Amino acid sequence: MPEKNVADEDVKAAIERTDTGDGPGTHNLDDLPESDFAGSAEDDAAGPQATATIPYDRPVEDFIDELSATGHVTHTSYMKTSVTLHHNAGRLSHQGVLDVWTVRPASAHFDVDAAGDVAQYVKVHEYAWAVGNTVGNQSSISIEMANATLAPHWTVAESTWKNAARLAGWLFAEVIGERPSRSNLFYHHKWSATLCAGPYMDRIYDEVLAAAQVAYDYFKDTHPTFRPDAEPVPNERRR
């Protein structure tokens, strides 16, 4: 069966899932606490940096404007203290993920596909509709991962989870400012009643954490080159 058809079928199945535990985490977004920053993301929504991806050392495909057009994101910035990993509940491409979120009121900051490539949908400090929990959406950066197989095992390819762990290590080094540990690297089910990121990822959590720690140590000791078109990283995080 052509890969495109598989992806299309998985998009349809993912849209129809009702047990994802994602979403904004509150029925009234106006009740969210004020931003941790002096100005919210709405204040700097204009200008060339509004849609810029992070200054990662590998390519990051930019879906920020397209996700924002769905309305399924809250453009208010919060200080992030953790990273949360998810699975797609499907063998989705980056575009397939956007197709799901266009219909379902959900979003996340990043996706890592089957090849290990990264896409960004929400600016790192903003409130993605990701974990179905207000505090979790405020404090955590969410990374989605494509599945290699579907239910019941929901496996994730090594190329996918290792690159998600590497991205998490970068985020801990350059955005959060703490080493990844069991107290700040989570799966989605930490925040709400869902099986995400799936039984396979539960079994290999120690490997994922170790890979994120290796990446953190590398990035912590590497002086990054910040692209002028990249999403700004708070000055207090820069070394």
TrEMBL record:
Positions of region (Disordered): 1-53
Name the UniProt record assigns to this protein: N-acetylmuramoyl-L-alanine amidase
SMART domains: Ami_2
Pfam families in alphabetical order: Amidase_2
Superkingdom of the source species: Bacteria
Compositionally biased spans, kind Basic and acidic residues: 1-20
Domain N-acetylmuramoyl-L-alanine amidase: 69-200
SUPFAM superfamilies named among the record's database cross-references: N-acetylmuramoyl-L-alanine amidase-like (SSF55846)
